[in-house]
């Protein structure tokens, strides 16, 4: 399902939880339209939106969206600058190589100022540089525990190079999990096993420097049955 439509539904049904996407693919969107959609969602949720963005990896998706793959990094940089200009400049006027916005006022304005937190995903050095210079934090996929320390070090180095405080630069990680009734053996995958095993894994993520892990049930064996997932969320909720 379209994530923004789903989050609008969730926003109407909740009051306090943060709402986020991981991640919207920049080449599938036009920055002014996306800025308006996200600002609307931030207003409807009372300022609870976090925005995850990425470039994606499938050239088929770029082609289907009518977006050239040439200069994809430069296009992404400009997309982020244009997105933030729409949210922060009043009136806004933007002239770039890929996107142009004539002098205009765009409403609504986001509730969060200067704008909802922007997190960028990706593993290439240019993605880390982009996250550190143009965004408010980094978001990674299912980073294996064995690679976590190195990934955090690379993100923090990029933040330091951009003049940011590495210790205060958010690092968010998606965690596909599988909660089992009994403990699993030593060869288990991280975030798979009993409640205590998953809690131990989360403590290791925190110790490695990850600011937040959001548990994702979509890739469980047999699929993400709603009633089973709700029970798992209850079991894993803070005590």
Please supply descriptive tags for the structure shown above.
239 residues; alpha/beta; TIM Barrel; six-stranded parallel β-sheet; two-stranded antiparallel sheet; 42% helix; globular
Any overview of this molecule?
There is one protein chain. With 239 residues, the chain is of the alpha/beta class. It folds into 2 domains: 1-116, Luciferase-like domain (TIM Barrel, Alpha-Beta Barrel), CATH 3.20.20; 124-239, TIM Barrel (Alpha-Beta Barrel), CATH 3.20.20.30. Helix content is 42%, strand content 18%. The protein has 8 helices and 10 strands. The chain has helices at residues 3-13, 31-44, 59-65, 72-88, 125-134, 145-161, 195-208, 226-236, and strands at residues 19-25, 49-54, 92-95, 100-104, 118-120, 137-140, 171-176, 178-179, 192-193, 212-216. Helix 5 links the parallel strand 5 and strand 6. Helix 2 (31-44) packs across helix 4.
Proportion of helical residues: 40-55%
- Highest CATH level, the class of the largest domain: Alpha Beta
Q: Give the averaged pLDDT, no decimals.
A: 94
* Second rung of CATH, namely the architecture of the largest domain: Alpha-Beta Barrel
The major pleated sheet works out as: 6 strands, parallel
Structural class: alpha/beta
Structurally, the number of domains stands at 2
For the largest beta sheet, what order do the strands appear in spatially?
Answer: 1-2-5-6-7-10
* SSE pattern: HEHEHHEEEHEHEEEHEH
Task: Report low-confidence residues grouped into runs of 5 or more.
Answer: none
Number of beta-strand segments:
10
Rounded Rg: 19 Å
**What do we call the CATH topology of the largest domain?**
TIM Barrel
Specify the CATH homologous superfamily of the largest domain. Answer: Luciferase-like domain
What spatial form do the alpha-carbon principal axes imply? globular
Distance between the termini: 32 Å
Q: Total number of helical segments?
A: 8
């Amino acid at each position: 399902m379209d994530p923004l439509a789903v989050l609008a539904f969730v926003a109407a049904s909740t009051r306090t939880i943060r709402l986020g996407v991981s991640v919207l693919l920049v080449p599938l969107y036009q920055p002014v339209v996306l800025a308006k959609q996200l600002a609307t969602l931030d207003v409807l949720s009372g300022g609870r939106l976090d925005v995850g963005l990425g470039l994606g990896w499938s050239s088929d998706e770029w082609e289907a969206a009518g977006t050239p793959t040439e200069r994809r990094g430069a296009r992404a940089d400009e997309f982020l600058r244009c997105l933030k200009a729409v949210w922060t400049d009043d009136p806004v006027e933007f002239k770039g190589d890929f996107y142009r916005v004539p002098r205009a006022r765009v409403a609504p304005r986001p509730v969060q100022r200067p704008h909802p937190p922007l997190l960028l995903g990706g593993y290439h050095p240019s993605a880390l540089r982009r996250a550190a210079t143009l965004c408010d934090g980094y978001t990674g996929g299912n980073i294996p525990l064995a690679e976590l320390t190195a990934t955090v070090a690379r993100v923090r180095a990029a933040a330091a190079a951009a003049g940011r405080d590495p210790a205060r630069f958010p690092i968010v990680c998606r965690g596909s999990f599988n909660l089992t009734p009994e403990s699993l053996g030593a060869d288990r995958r991280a975030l798979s096993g009993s409640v205590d095993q998953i809690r131990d894994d989360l403590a290791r993520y925190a110790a490695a420097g990850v600011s937040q892990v959001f548990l994702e049930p979509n890739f469980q064996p047999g699929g993400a049955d709603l009633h089973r997932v709700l029970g798992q969320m209850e079991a894993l909720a803070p005590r």
